[in-house]
Design goal:
Blueprint: H1 3-15, H2 18-21, E1 22-25, E2 39-40, E3 51-53, E4 64-67, E5 92-95, E6 98-107, E7 113-122, E8 133-139, E9 151-156, E10 165-174, E11 186-193, E12 200-210, E13 220-221, H3 223-252
Length: 253
């Protein structure tokens, strides 16, 4: 068997376990914070799926809400990550001390791996958030519960973008690594900032699921899968060129 055929068979073998290489996108409401309206935690009402939680049960809390950054906050393209002022759209969610939470349309079960991406930025004049900012997935927070009554499952902390910089922070949760007592609960996104003296901006949130326990949906190939497809297509092209070359030599003879 030729090398090209071996390469093609290897690519197909790696692609076939679709539960591991195909990702199902999970719907995140208002992922780039372009729609107005964030609500009080105890009511869960309003036009936005995001809910603000104050750490200290203060009605007004510190600054939080939708914000439109300008050149005084971020320099377009300066960090090489974001071509404009913000990663997506025109608005972000800006917060100094507090949390924002969204309950996702996903029920936890075995054999799920969730991958989360969220852009975190610090305005030029606010100073690095150091250990003040955290990103997490949790489960089972009931409406109207105390502010800190959450079941932390996975996340990343600290998140420390430099002044005027955005970072694309990612983390994963494999449900086989958590207690099965969480199975059947709703999955939740939770972003927090502990420092009332520093504004932190959040934008462009995405989450996907791989594994046999993922909810139904239209799967999207992950980058590694696309690369394998490319290898397979290249092998097919090589096989066809060799066959065409042999045919041309036979016709010439």
């Amino acid at each position: 068997m030729t090398l090209a055929r071996w390469v093609l068979l290897l690519a197909i073998a790696l692609i076939l376990p679709s539960g591991h290489v195909w990702a199902v996108p999970i719907t995140v409401g208002d992922p780039s914070f372009e729609n107005p309206g964030l609500t009080n935690y105890n009511t869960f009402t309003g036009p936005s799926p995001w809910v603000y939680i104050d750490y200290n049960n203060e009605p007004n809390g510190y600054y939080h809400g939708l914000y439109t950054p300008t050149a005084s906050d971020y320099t377009a393209g300066s960090d090489g990550l974001v071509s404009g002022i913000v990663p997506d759209g025109t608005q972000v969610f800006r917060m100094a001390e507090g949390k924002i939470l969204q309950i996702l349309p996903v029920t936890l079960a075995a054999n799920q791996t969730f991958s989360v991406s969220v852009w975190v930025g610090t305005p030029k004049t606010d100073g690095s958030p150091a250990s003040s900012t955290s990103l997490a997935l949790d489960a089972g927070t009931p409406k109207g519960s105390p502010n800190n009554n959450v079941n932390y499952l996975a996340g990343v902390s600290p998140v420390s973008p430099s002044d005027g910089q955005w970072l694309d922070e990612t983390f994963t949760l494999n449900t086989n690594s958590i207690s099965s007592s969480y199975y059947g609960m709703s999955l939740e996104l939770l972003f927090g900032n502990l420092n009332e003296n520093i504004n932190v901006d959040f934008d462009k949130v995405t989450i996907s699921c791989t594994g046999t326990g993922c909810p139904t949906g239209t799967p999207v190939p992950e980058p590694s899968t696309l690369a394998l497809f490319g290898v397979g297509l290249a092998a097919l092209g090589l096989i066809r060129r060799r066959k065409a070359g042999r045919a041309d030599r036979r016709s010439f003879l």
